[in-house]
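Margin note from the TA: students keep mixing up input and output lines. Inputs are the sequences; the output is the structure of the whole complex. Example:
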Amino acid sequence: MRRALGALAHYWPIAAVFVGWDLWVVLNGYTTVVAPRPGLVLADIAAEPGAYAGDLLRTLLTSLVGLVLGMGVGILAAIAVWSSAAVSGVVTPAALVLRSVPVTAMIPVIARVAGYGDSSILLIIVVVSFFPAFVLTVSGLAATPAAGRDLFGVLGAGRLRTLVRLQLPHAVPHVMVAFRLTAPSAVLAALLAEYLVGTGGLGHLFSTARSYMELERAWGTALLATVVSVLVFVLARGAERRVGARFS
Amino acid sequence: MSAAARRAALATTGVLVLLAGAEAVGRAGIAGPSWPPLSEVAAHLLDADRRATVVRAASATLASAAEGLLAGVLVAAAAAFTGLLLPPLRPGLDRLAALLHAVPVIALAPLLITTVGREATPTVVAGLGAGFVMFVAFSSGLSLGGRRSTHDDVFDALGANRVRRLLRLQLPASVPTVLDGLTLAAPAAVLGATIGEWFGAPRGLGVLIVSAMQNFQVTLLWSAAACATALSLAAYGLTTALQRAAVRRMA
């Protein structure tokens, strides 16, 4: 009983969303063509999980691969420019400008340039994941305490050893912050790109369900997309906390 | 040269190199016909007739984003204040704040089209995007999580009630965090407005970008994308300036 009350205290907003959604549909007198009730949407997911599973996996996998690739390239680029204050001073503001390009403007441009298709979707996620990792790794490398650098200098450590043994471990929490910030944006970018130019994935399932007026399917996809995105965020936040505690 | 001047010079060089690189790629045609030289994009924006289309779309997007931002801030503030005045709701609101951060607004946009209509969708999506961020900022600024300071003890000892504590202590103390959130919420509102427009709004940069992509109007596509970027940068720049000024004043 006490446990149930504790769960209610923490999770009442989720119940409130479903109740509010149901009330909103019923009170406005919406037919299923306008907005289906939550029960119908959940029933559609429960009745045909196979219709969702493939696209769900595809979106997850694309987001994950793109996220890892983009962050990897971002970290390598940050290490490459870090060695020179002048180079990183030149590159970082440009990266900040590119980071401000709204993903809704970036997707159509990349899709037009790189072609409609799955490789473009991956490229879009890589680009979206690159900038936060790059910017935060540069700042992490720069934030190494001077005392540590002095110690390594006195002990005669070379640049490479200082980088590997001191500065990279120091940048790890910054990289994890980038991971937490980027993970939901990578999923959002994947969904948007799939919606516009994809041949599969939740975004594509959503656009086809909408054009065939399969409203339960469309809302079910939206619901799953939300769940996936929230799960990815919660996992990323957990990873950030665990790794951050280990490294600081 | 002072450190600040040096930094500004390096930054300007970086942006110029970026622009020159994009121009060179366009001229050489390395990336194909869909990557125009930036000078052509600039020419598109300088031509009065062609600029008018982009400006009309940009002002529609700006209006949606600004209205959405305002509504998002107000609703987020109201929700956070409710949490402060009704403590039993707090653990749930705290968790809600973390989750809302991750909700993909794309999932909501097309559903809104059928319910609130094509005209209003960009504003509502902008409001949701900005509101989610602002709710996180308000709840951490007002420390809904329950951290207490010595000031709280003083207010306790002097017998302040919840409303007075909110007005005199928690609200002023939350200003820097809330403005920090605003620097994220303003670009999020621009993004939200363009997402809302993607799904069939009658006007706006999002519509223009998608239709230019589909109709192979390359310079129009790049002009509209550049405009959206400028809006997003301006939103970030203005709110950052506001935040810095407030932090200087409060410190």
